[in-house]
Amino acid sequence: MNIKLLVTTLAIALASHSFAATATQPKAETPEQRDARMSWWREARFGMFVHWGLYSIPAGEWDGKGTKGHGKEWIQKQAGIPADVYEKRLYPQFNPKEGFAEEWAKAANMAGCKYIVFTTKHHEGFAMHDSAVTTFDAKDACGRDLLKEVVDATKAEGLKFGAYYSVIDWHHPHAYAGFGLPTVKGVTNQGRDNSIYVDYLHKQVEEIVTGYGDIDILWWDFSKPDCQGESWRAKELVSMVRKHQPNMVMNNRLYASKNSFVGADSNLLKEWDSEIGDFTTPEQSIPDTGVEGVDWETCMTMNKTWGYSKFDNNWKSSEELIRNLIDVVSKGGNYLLNIGPKADGSIPEQSVQRMQAIGKWMDVNSDAIYGTSASPFGKPQWGRYTSKADRLYAHVFDWPVSGKLTIPNADRKVSKVYLLADSAQNALPIESVGGGWIISLPSQGLDAVATVVVVQYE
Questions:
Q1: Alpha helices (H) in 45-188, listed in sequence order
Q2: Which domains does the chain have, with CATH numbers?
């Protein structure tokens, strides 16, 4: 244990005991209050995830060998690297370039993202903020509070900010090891006092939620059935966070809910409990029919890995990413798209190109994304629907050869139909047939990825 950690451990324990004894639980929200708190997040629909840490330095390679498995933010586990070796090798090399945070924020804004979620501490345990309880942080490594730089740059672009925090830790000598959690080879829980680590965890989170102004999202990661909830003293942790940041939105990964990691699940809670979380997080997948009755967000990579890897060239096309965004939103979810910056903080050119392409499409079509609700008519073969109170958006992926598009009748009068990309909003011919409408389209769409047809209701 380093000296800084040793000196502060007792103070943390005393502070945690004091907080547990005196903290009051936040008053239960009414449905209307919860809707008001969640409103910006539900309207945003699109965010940028950033995975960046010491793991970005080896970029998928250790001692001249590439590591197996996707997710190079897991390289410490993949290569079985002891914590002291990992720190000794990578800590001195961490030297981000100036202005990296501004580049990230501008890239997110350019793409049409409304918020950024940044890995303040991943499983490796390296903290990006200036932490008083460890020297294993950015401030001690490179003399800069990198969390402050990212928060400031994000807010300067008018975006909301989210802090990712991993509750597992491969560096701390008393963190949970085993219990079904991913654990570095050879490490066991024998001789560890996990309560010391949980005190440390609470203190670091409190530093984040009290030292950087408004934090809009806390994105927890992650739990397993044998280590979840009260293993982290979750109720106390959530109460502390909500005390300092009452408007914050949180995911549910303090608990090992199945639907945290996969698509729709038949065992979803019937009534969502904000003590467990505000939204759930399908990972690398889009639920076929969304997640009924629950706020949700699909998080996804542009290639195969979250952290930067020089070996991973399995890039999704810009078309696939744009259509993924539309697909997620058409089912009532948010899309959190990841970038994995290089060691110096620069964004890989492949990611920049894709963000530019998404931004170009969003410049024209964002009205069919922001503030929209799930499709009222399911999933048509030719594309997707999104909707607002007074209009329906038909996102046409496959332009009909016949020049005719049939949509269901919503039992509402239609005042006008036009292409969203048509600045003049020239009306398209429409006729009522049976239980639907037939729209006569131009010979070809205005965008090969997705042309949006707007059906304006009276």
A1: 75-78, 83-90, 100-111, 138-142, 146-156
A2: 3-368 (3.20.20.80), 383-457 (2.60.40.1180)
